[in-house]
């Protein structure tokens, strides 16, 4: 899909941005790309999450779980149950995370922090065990 320009209201004239350039990605596609890249990176460095699933939803459900605080939910972890065939899953919420970032670089850092934090809390370990370079104040 390429982005076309409409110069002076005369209809579509030409390609503004070829589909091979990163500017042709929508915000949600860019967010998904960052999640995939970070999930791959974490899987390489921390093989115990190799079978985990990573998902993206736009916003969290309007009815929070009973154990969740009233703070905004940025991500959620669902642990898999033995014998049920369900794998552990980390769900990142795109809009709340995107609203906290002032640019694309900050968004990449926030996504990494959210993934590492969710994995570490689900496994009951320190975030630095999942990602040795983890810095919660890394902005």
TrEMBL record:
CDD domains: MMP_TTHA0227_like_1. SUPFAM superfamilies: Metalloproteases ('zincins'), catalytic domain. This is Metallopeptidase family protein. InterPro entries: Zincin_1, Zincin_1_sf. Gene3D superfamilies: 3.30.2010.20.
